[in-house]
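quick one, 164 residues, struct below
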Amino acid sequence: MKPDDPIRLTGLLLEREAELARVAECERLIRGILGQPYSFPPPPQLPSLARGRKKPPARTVLPAAGAGAASLPPNSSPIRAAVDQYRARFQAGAVAEDGIRTLRAPENAYRVTYRRGGETAVSLQTDRRLLQRLLALDEPEFAITEIAAGTLHADDRFAPTEVL
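---
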């Protein structure tokens, strides 16, 4: 699994849920216009609706009496494992291949110093993916000279914690 896969999975699941909610809302509006129940055609055959043979549940070895909850087997759900892995990476301030780590608490922004057209400028950003795209730009008139992680306070004061 790639480092960004848990984020992509979460995004796709949220998108799927939003689309299903939109279908339900459209059906409700159609019934409201008609003023009576309406028999909608069944949904198309989706892979997620296919009923396959259920696998038997995995055997779980129970801990010895008095062993406590710490020795229970971890949740084996692949989605739960991906979410746990993402949380661990986020809390640890994981560093991506491009060298830009995720923000650590209480950090909430990146300060980007760059040169464009011979002039130096500073920008505050919160999206690490945007920084990755900017670093990948191959423009002779644009160059990032420094990226710092830190905290942007309510009075617009930026307190850097680390230059990346």
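The chain has three helices and four strands.
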